[in-house]
Design a protein that fits this description.
By secondary structure, the protein is α/β, with parallel strands linked by helices. The protein binds ligand MGD (2 copies) and molybdenum atom. Molybdenum atom binds near residues 196, 200, 416 and 417.
């Protein structure tokens, strides 16, 4: 089905091996090695002085918010080192002194650049000036800022309808930039506001909205310290949210227990050495998970049902296991939930989930008496066909145990990008929110569109069908992040104009519309000046707290503009006569915040209240207010078992992150915790499955997925034996996104099924001697 792309660009680069080395998976996460790794990256990318200065200001009250994940900062922050290895890598990546400037684009055509790997593209460094790729040309060339805005205005004026424009957001933007961007789209007349969260925690948002009345988590950081049991399901905090480990450590020191639910026994959950205290750097660390439940991919619902069934049986004896007063007062649906639960056969549930009964009994024993329970989760639950139902099943546990709206208990969807939650809070959403529209009419004096827009998967299909002409991206790397890379590439190419507001070069700059623009922007660590005034912006962390972020580094070049400024200038050039003073909005962020206070729900006096520790946005679950839900109560739900019809030679593939990447940005080629070095093209597979397939370590295979009769192939991967349930395999994204069909996604949230892709393994060559010789590390 693949069709050649315009300008001869490649969606994969050359698929070459990079000389793999294998070691044992590491059991201790973080520790001194983590700090050393972080500093190594920092020093290499930005020099010693620049990196020390910046690291000291990251996540401090007078500094900037870490550009990596959205985990909150403790109130009594450590004066140094309130960062983690990954934060330091993210910073080094942004503050690098390398430059992708006009000379690079003069020398390299887009086709030539696209032959490189994502890792190599990112290494070119920071984008330095606005660039245009004209129809028929193969090279980007400089364009003035005003020239770029004029070109955008001209294209927007040529649209037949506002819905021919699409505005994608990635979660690194500020509240101010995201709010202006959403406002620009709505002022134009469209709700086409797809967001990276559509591929990420959308299933959480939908599930939590339906059951608890708010699409966000309910816990605050201090709750984790107090919890009796924390469940960590489908999340790899040691790699993706390392600062969460210190919170888990506090929980454990207070006597709490941690249960990990994951097909893999991830390093951070085995043992953690806190790099922030001495014992962490030299001692033996803390054993994190008291219990590991190696669930099969997408069998969390059977596992939870079995646990709930066993708890229900115990409860029927003494009525002390479930919190009946809570259930009575705050929930609806108890009887139908219990009737449904009674139907399942325990043996069948046990077999489906693949976890030993002894381990499940241990989990039941831990949960039985506990009243303060927190469930943390991430992509392992959301990126399945039944992603929404997965989360609703864990909410059932919390509701039955009355573990909500009190200290030490609640929901904790661990968000990804550092401001992905804030972007949504200030209006990046494709559906219509009538209350917000009313406030827009009242305070901004324009008529917002009253029909639904497109999310990520709908946008891709619309582009592919030629329904969209202009595609804007506020950050991100849409092509590589989205599913079905070839289909998405063809979709993007249908556009007349594509515009990327970005910091670093990536493949979405190379696979473009007929005309393409790159608008280079300031990174979060950089000083954002308006004349002599230093500006700041605000962000919301994973727990709903809004605070300020002020860059401190000298910008990579003098020709970068801030995201709000770029959006405002684009709007100012396009609109001839508009009720909003776009020019001033691009200059004065206090003015943007005044509008945020009036238009976005829960924001009030943001400029002032975001100072210092910041403020929490309202959260109804914390007050046990479910008045917005049917009967005014939280909803216990009936969720069906996931059904997979795997052919006898098919495996279930999860596509996940290595330790050296941030989504599509590849910092390095090692996955230290999993013992893989200098290579990303690997498939983790159970030894017994290898035997059944006649495969040896480092054999070369293709992965093929077949959906709706279409075969998609990811070429050239190396077999790596791993402790993973039989029938399950794992590999890294974005390389494997070519396998994920664009039209298969979670019901109701439309999150692509990135964690349960059915694939066949096709051996194409035996292990090469040169690879084996260098593969063992001691
Ligand atoms: N360093 C770093 N930090 C990051 C990111 C990054 O790329 N690099 N990305 C950020 C973003 S945007 C996000 S959304 C988060 C992502 O954070 P995670 O969700 O932790 O990221 P993934 O690597 O996708 O890992 C998913 C985990 O789920 C498990 N899993 C897969 N399938 C299942 C299943 O069916 N059931 C269960 N129970 N577990 C399963 C996998 O084994 C893996 O441990 O991290 C954020 N932080
Ligand atoms: N198969 C598979 N696919 C997945 C996932 C998976 O687990 N498996 N995970 C999904 C998830 S959870 C997510 S969140 C998405 C991520 O999707 P995206 O958010 O679209 O991707 P990123 O890789 O985070 O985007 C990186 C790019 O953002 C730009 N950038 C970085 N910082 C800034 C900034 O401050 N401002 C601006 N304007 N640009 C900046 C840089 O140019 C960089 O190249 O991917 C999804 N795709
Ligand atoms: Mo994410």
């Amino acid at each position: 089905m693949s069709k050649p792309l315009r300008r001869g660009v490649s969606i994969t680069g050359i698929e070459e091996f990079t000389n793999i080395k294998l070691g044992d998976p590491v059991r201790d996460a973080a520790g001194m090695l983590g700090v050393k790794e972080a500093l190594k990256h920092g020093f290499k990318e930005m020099g010693v002085l620049r990196s020390m200065g910046a690291l000291l200001k990251m996540n401090q009250k007078d500094g900037f918010d870490c550009p990596s994940c959205a985990w909150p900062d403790p109130e009594n922050r450590s004066p140094v080192a309130e960062y983690c290895e990954n934060g330091a890598k993210a910073l080094a990546d942004e503050a690098t002194t390398a430059k992708a400037d006009k000379n690079l684009f003069k020398k390299w055509s887009v086709a030539e650049l696209s032959q490189l790997s994502d890792y190599e593209l990112n290494k070119f460094g920071r984008l330095t000036e606005p660039l245009v790729l004209k129809p028929g040309s193969n090279h980007y060339e400089p364009i003035s800022w005003q020239g770029a805005y004029d070109l955008i205005a001209q294209h927007l004026k040529e649209l037949n309808a506002p819905d021919e424009a699409i505005f994608y957001t990635s979660g690194r933007s500020s509240n101010e930039a995201a709010f202006l961007y959403g406002t620009f789209a709505r002022a134009l007349g469209t709700n086409n506001l797809p967001d990276c969260s559509n591929m990420c925690h959308e299933s959480s948002g939908v599930a939590l909205g339906e059951t608890l009345g708010i699409g966000k988590g309910s816990t605050v950081l201090e709750d984790l310290y107090e919890a009796e049991v924390i469940l960590i399901a489908g999340q790899n905090p040691g790699t993706n949210h390392p600062r969460m480990m210190s919170a888990l450590e506090k929980c454990k020191n207070n006597g709490g227990k941690v249960i990990s639910i994951n097909p893999l026994e991830e390093s951070g959950l085995v043992n953690f050495k806190n790099p922030q205290h001495l014992s962490g750097t030299i001692g033996s660390g803390v054993q994190m998970a008291d219990l590991h439940l190696p669930v099969k991919i997408n069998q969390d619902i059977p596992l939870m049902k079995l646990i709930l069934k066993k708890l229900a049986t115990l409860d029927s004896i003494d009525h002390q296991v479930f919190d009946h007063a809570f259930i009575e007062k705050y929930t609806s649906g108890y009887q139908s939930f219990m009737n449904d639960l009674a139907q399942y056969d325990e043996e069948d549930l046990l077999e489906r989930c693949g976890v030993s009964e002894a381990s499940i009994n241990k989990a039941v024993a831990m949960l039985r008496k506990s009243k303060k329970i927190i469930v943390c989760w991430a992509m392992g639950l959301t990126q399945h066909k039944n992603g929404v139902e997965n989360i609703r099943e864990f909410v059932n546990l919390l509701l039955l145990k009355g573990a909500l709206g009190k200290p030490g208990a609640g929901t904790c969807p661990v968000r990804g990008h550092s401001n992905v939650q804030g972007d949504r809070s200030v209006g990046i959403q494709h559906f219509v929110d009538e209350a917000m529209n009313e406030r827009i009419r009242k305070h901004m004096a324009f008529e917002p569109p009253a029909h639904k827009g497109w999310d990520v998967v709908e946008s891709i299909q619309a582009m592919h069908e030629g329904k969209a002409k202009a595609f804007f991206c506020l950050g991100g790397n849409f092509l590589m992040a989205a599913s079905d890379t070839q289909y998405t590439a063809e979709a993007i190419e249908q556009c007349e104009l594509t515009v990327q507001i970005s910091t670093k070069l990536n493949r979405t700059h190379l696979v473009t519309g007929k005309t393409a623009l790159i608008l280079p922007t300031l990174g979060r660590s950089e000083k954002d000046m308006n004349g002599d005034t230093k500006r700041y912006f605000t962000v919301e962390n994973s727990m709903g707290k809004v605070s300020q972020s002020k860059g401190i580094l000298k910008p990579a070049t003098g020709n970068l503009r801030s995201e709000p400024q770029i959006i405002a200038e684009m709007a100012n050039t396009f609109f001839d006569n508009h009720p909003l003073d776009w020019k001033r909005l691009g200059e004065d962020y206090d003015l943007i915040r005044e509008y945020i206070d009036k238009v976005a729900k829960g924001f009030e006096d943001t400029s002032k209240r975001s100072e210092g520790h910041g403020f929490y946005l309202p959260n109804n679950v914390r007050n046990l207010d479910f008045s917005m839900l049917p009967e005014g109560k939280a909803q216990l739900t009936v969720n069906k078992l996931p059904e997979h019809t795997l052919a006898s030679d098919e495996f279930m593939l999860m596509t996940m992150r290595s330790h050296d990447q941030f989504n599509t940005t590849i910092y390095g080629l090692d996955d230290r915790y999993r013992g893989v070095y200098n290579e990303r093209r690997v498939v983790f597979i159970n030894k017994e499955d290898m035997k059944d397939l006649g495969l040896q370590k480092l054999d070369i295979v293709n992965l093929n997925s077949t959906y709706d009769g279409i075969v998609r192939t990811a070429r050239k991967f190396l077999i790596v034996p791993y402790n993973i349930p039989k029938g399950n395999i794992a590999a890294y994204f974005p390389e494997t996104n070519v396998l994920v069909p664009y039209n298969h996604f979670a019901e109701r949230s439309q999150t692509p099924i990135s964690k349960s892709v059915k694939v066949r393994i096709e051996k194409i060559a035996a292990a090469e001697q040169r690879l084996i010789d260098s593969s063992e590390l001691n």
